[in-house]
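Weekly sync, protein design subgroup
Attendees: M.S., D.O., the rotation student, P.L. (late)

Item 1: inverse folding check
M.S. brought a backbone from last month's batch and wanted to see whether the design step gives back something sensible before we order anything. D.O. pointed out we never logged the input encoding, so this time it goes straight into the notes. Structure tokens as presented (72 positions):
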């Protein structure tokens, strides 16, 4: 599954970087909801508890790669 996901994301990136504007728009419309769903599922799995520790990693927020990558 990991290999299939990585291949899919690589194809999306190539399509976005190299595609014509109309094709990029179609890709964005088709894939944005899926990407957002995956991101939200990851963040739900790595929710912070009351002390600020990641419930999946059992580390402080600053050490959890899921929560730090989603922070602005």
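Designed sequence read out in the meeting:
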């Amino acid at each position: 599954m990991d290999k299939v996901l990585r291949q899919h994301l690589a194809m999306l990136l190539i399509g976005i970087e190299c595609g014509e504007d109309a094709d990029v728009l179609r890709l964005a419309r088709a894939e944005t909801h899926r990407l957002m769903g995956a991101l939200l599922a990851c963040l739900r799995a790595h929710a912070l508890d009351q002390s600020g520790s990641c419930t999946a990693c059992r580390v402080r927020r600053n050490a959890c790669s899921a929560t730090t990558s989603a922070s602005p």
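Discussion: The radius of gyration is 16 Å. The chain has a mean pLDDT of 89.
Action: P.L. to compare against the previous round before Friday.
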